[in-house]
Design a protein that fits this description.
The protein is mainly α. It is built from 19 helices and 6 strands. Helix 6 runs antiparallel to helix 19.
Length: about 450
């Protein structure tokens, strides 16, 4: 156990980022509570098998809580003996009298640490799961509301063909739904503990070692590692940190889109802004900046930064060394706190997103019909014009319209092939963005039907 200096915090998680709900899981107090819970479960398993007196297990269980064993007491002992888990064992033993001799029987430190960490992660992934569900609901609501809201589709930062804002939101909702599946599916591999001693053989626990392990994990509501060395396989931590990094990347992508759509020259959507109180800039009073989305992007990058040490922590000497321990004290709490923080921020952005359909229409019209090039090409092919020939006709017309400042419609109308195969009404229909969103609305409906439960 370590003691943080609350008077002079250094880590921004202590004073700027993260929700208390998630941070509470990774406090020294909750960590100690989990260690005590594991020790109590171990004592109860031993008692059930007749290895220790039942009254010892009862005494241990009665004192394996923060009312009896405090962080301050454990820290004081650790400062003297320089061992975190033994400090917990000694502090608990001090409260249990003669029953203290039965504490930690046959276990090694990482039986307690890794199993306790699994209990913390069990709480953390439930919060992340709920966060993602809330984000998905927000995105589905936008998808439904704007399934027919026309918008410029952009590729390479350039106008491509029309789309709908609802389709964009449906795509995001689908991505979030996949993350929900990943989080849920990972639980069976992540939420495991071990109770097999120094190098995983269970020798100190005797002939009943595997039964003791099963009983302990059953009491704690997690699974038992099938085979381990001194620690559970860190591939498990790699998986959850990878999923969290994946989620963070999606959030940065969504936030980047909000930032781009809020650009002054685009202004198709923007974060909510409290015009009565909020300040956008210290020097430019007119500014309304996408600060939450920018914050999400920055924190997503920090979150992904923990992925590399998570991988490296799986490379240990023989049955284990201690090179992973210090890194994991950062990696697991920070990634969980950060991802919870930015998912909730992203949900808030979408819950309060200002959408400007009139600007979307204006931006569509600013292309002067050029955005409908593919539509005209496909109209020509339906009339028997070869696809490649149709492509070249439309390409030349587009280049001429741009270079000479002419109307795309007029240039197309002057083309001999176009005028022969398309009537004026058919050409106008091909140039109407409302006629060229394909199955966007149907796709949105299908996404809502699948993920709206």
């Amino acid at each position: 156990m370590t003691k943080s200096n609350q008077e002079s915090p250094v880590c921004p998680l202590e004073y700027r980022y993260g929700r208390e709900k998630m941070k509470a899981i990774f406090t020294e107090a909750n960590k100690l509570a989990k260690f005590l819970e594991v020790e109590a479960a171990l004592a109860e398993a031993h008692a059930e098998l007749g290895n220790i007196p039942k009254e010892d297990a009862f005494k241990i269980r009665s004192n394996a809580n923060l009312n009896s064993v405090t962080v301050e007491e454990v820290n004081a002992i650790e400062a003297e003996i320089k061992h975190d888990v033994m400090a917990v064992v000694k502090a608990l033993a001090n409260k249990c009298g003669k029953a203290g001799k039965s504490i930690h029987l046959g276990a090694t430190s990482n039986d307690i640490i890794d199993t306790g960490t699994a209990l913390q992660l069990k709480e953390a992934v439930e919060i992340i799961y709920d966060d993602l569900v809330a984000l998905k609901i927000s995105l589905l609501a936008l998808a439904k509301e704007h399934k027919n809201t026309l918008q410029v589709g952009r590729t390479h930062g350039q106008f491509a063909v029309p789309t709908t804002f609802g389709l964009k939101m449906a795509v995001y909702a689908s991505e979030v739904a996949r993350h929900i599946e990943r989080i849920d599916e990972s639980k069976k591999r992540l939420l495991v503990g071990k109770m097999t001693g120094a190098v995983g053989t269970g020798a100190a626990l005797g002939d009943q070692a595997l039964l003791i392990q099963d009983k302990v994990m059953e009491k704690l509501g997690i699974s038992a590692e099938k085979a381990s060395l001194q620690i559970i396989g860190r591939d498990r931590y790699i998986e959850i940190i990878s999923i969290i990094a994946n989620i963070a990347t999606s959030l940065e992508k969504f936030a980047t889109e909000v930032r781009n759509l809020q650009r002054s020259e685009i202004k198709e959507a923007s974060e909510a802004f409290d015009t009565k109180k909020q300040v956008g800039s210290s020097t430019m009073p007119n500014k309304k900046n996408p600060i939450t989305s920018e914050n999400i992007c920055g924190l997503a990058r920090v979150t992904r930064g923990f992925l590399l040490p998570a991988f490296e922590n799986n490379i240990l000497w023989h049955e284990r060394d201690l090179a992973n321990s210090s890194g994991e004290r950062f990696i697991i709490p920070h990634t969980c706190v950060l991802i919870d923080d930015i998912i909730c921020k992203m949900t808030n952005v979408f819950d309060n997103l200002a959408v400007f359909p009139e600007n979307m229409k204006k931006n569509l019209e600013s292309s002067k019909g050029l955005i409908m090039g593919e539509s005209v090409m496909m109209a020509l092919t339906k009339k028997g014009v070869g696809r490649q020939k149709g492509h070249e006709i439309v390409r030349q017309a587009a280049m001429k319209a741009v270079s000479e400042g002419l109307s795309f419609k007029d240039v197309l109308g002057e083309d001999e092939t176009v005028s022969q195969v398309l009537s004026k009404e058919e050409l106008m229909d091909a140039l109407n963005p409302e006629n060229y969103t394909g199955k966007a609305a149907e796709i949105v409906d299908k996404v809502i039907e699948k993920y709206g439960q």
